[in-house]
Amino acid sequence: MLLSYRFRIYPSKTIQAKLNEQLEICRWLYNRLLEEVNKARKEGRKINRQDTQALIVKLKEEKPELNKVYSKVLQMVNYQLWSNIKTLAELKRKGKKTGTLRYKTGNSFKTLNFNQSGFKIDFKRRKLVLSKVGEIPIKLHRKIEGKIKGVIIKRTKSEKWFALVQLEVVDETIPKTGRVIGIDMGVHHFATDSDGNRFENPKFLDKTIEKIRKIQKVLSRKQKGSKNREKARKRLAKLYEKLENQRNDFLHKLSRYYINNYDVVCIEDLDIKSLVENNRSHTLNRHILDASWSKFIQLLFYKAERANRRVVKVNPKNTSRICARCGKIIKIELKDRLFVCPYCSWEADRDYNASLNILNAGLGRPLAPVEREPLLRIVSYWEVITGQVLSMKQEAPCVS
Ligand SMILES: [Zn+2]
Fold first, then answer.
1. Which of the chain's termini has less CB crowding within 10 Å, N or C?
2. 243 or 347, which is more confident
3. How far is the CA of 399 from the centre of ligand 1 (A)?
4. Residue 393: per-residue pLDDT
5. In degrees, to the nearest 5, what angle opens at C-alpha 301 toward C-alphas 279 and 191?
6. How big is the CA angle at 156 (ends 152 and 162), to the nearest 5 degrees?
7. 142, 175, 73, 65: which is closest to 114 by C-alpha?
8. H or E element at residue 9
9. How far is the centre of ligand 1, averaged over its atoms, from the C-alpha of 341 (Å)?
């Protein structure tokens, strides 16, 4: 199992210039190799990863600057290109609308990938040593346990530098709980689950989004290329990073809570959900919420794999319209917060009813063995990020 830890690094001005130059060289290489692939395809020639890999050596004559970059890093540029090609083909196969692979422009090439070799962490002196780069102070805010497989150097939009340290670790073992759960993710609340817990949408979103909007307005008024515009752009990038950090902290802790407390976690398949929901509003809030959902699911899968838990994706069709107790499908408006079944007189919070349907679908059982709705427990954002949620008391096992 591979883990990735992020550490802030503080390259000197000289080293920053070196890193930026190497990023630029890698960007050139990426585009050059992509050009080669496009050309081959146009001419109907087959071309694969080994072909472009071999080309790198030849290109060193055409562009001696390539020698300034550690050879393995150049190889990883080729690797990245082919992994992008593969992803695109995969999306096409699934019937998604895709364009062609784009050339990397301006600052869009942001990572140098030192895979297997070319790096060393000097723990005593707190320095990261990179081949053909030099020494960079690193803030080791957490212990590194396990074998280091690689280091990825990353430049963010606000021009901070990070080292993503790839670690090989053994799987963690946590005892089986005998519990299963269905989670409904919503617009009004982040998540409502079949044990009757409701997680509020993180409030920081509103505050930070408000700030982002303000700066965006300022930015649109500033003259292109002006110093002030550059300043505003950096501030905006910083805010986006802050938003992402806050959001990730929340999502990490919430997904940890579910993985620690349940053997099977059932959730909606968002790929399908976005297709089912027409009329989607493309507001900034909604955009960030969408991103949070997919990140949350990604984290659930990631943690589940390590802890030997199961995450089941279910088709979201009708999950909010089925009566979880008798199985009949009912017409329910988006504004209706209460689900009332005219057939069996089941009454429940709309999202709670949906979470039961998601659980039923995930477990492959027809109906939920429920009598009446429990009192929903509202869990605030603070309870999640301060870790209180991890010590929340659980109901008795409810295995079916
Ligand atoms: Zn019913």
1. C
2. 347
3. 22
4. 63
5. 45
6. 40
7. 73
8. strand 2-9
9. 5
Q: Please give the distance, rounded to the nearest whole angstrom, from the Cα atom of residue 324 to the centre of ligand 1.
A: 7
Q: How far is the CA of 327 from the centre of ligand 1 (A)?
A: 6
* pLDDT of amino acid 273: 58
Q: What residue type is assigned to position 265 of the chain?
A: V
pLDDT the model gives residue 396: 46
Q: Do 157 and 240 meet the contact criterion of CB atoms below 8 Å apart?
A: yes
Rounded to whole angstroms, the Cα distance separating 278 from 354 reads 19
From residue 60, alpha-carbon distances to 80, 330, 367 in Å are: 19, 67, 65
- pLDDT for the residue numbered 351: 94
The three-class DSSP label of residue 166 is strand
C-alpha 350 – ligand 1 centre gap (Å): 13
Tell me, in angstroms, the distance from the centre of ligand 1 to residue 326's CA. 4
With both helix axes pointing from N to C terminus, report the angle between 49-62 and 71-93 in degrees, rounded to the nearest 10: 140
Q: What percent of the chain has pLDDT over 90?
A: 54
Nearest to 26 by CA among 152, 127, 135: 152
| Alpha carbon of 313 to ligand 1 centroid (Å) | 24
Report yes or no on whether pTM surpasses 0.85.
Answer: no
Q: How far apart are CA 379 and CA 191, in angstroms?
A: 10
Cα 197 to ligand 1 centroid, rounded to whole Å = 22
3-state secondary structure of 180: strand
Taking 70 as the threshold, does the pLDDT of residue 278 lie above it?
no
Q: Crossing angle for the helix pair 13-42 and 49-62, nearest 10 degrees?
A: 120
| Segment 200-227 mean pLDDT | 81
**Residue 346 and residue 2: Cα distance in Å, rounded?**
46
> Looking up tokens 């073992």, which residue turns up?
173
Nearest to 197 by CA among 256, 254, 247, 253: 254
How far, in Å, is the centroid of ligand 1 from the Cα of 346? Answer: 5
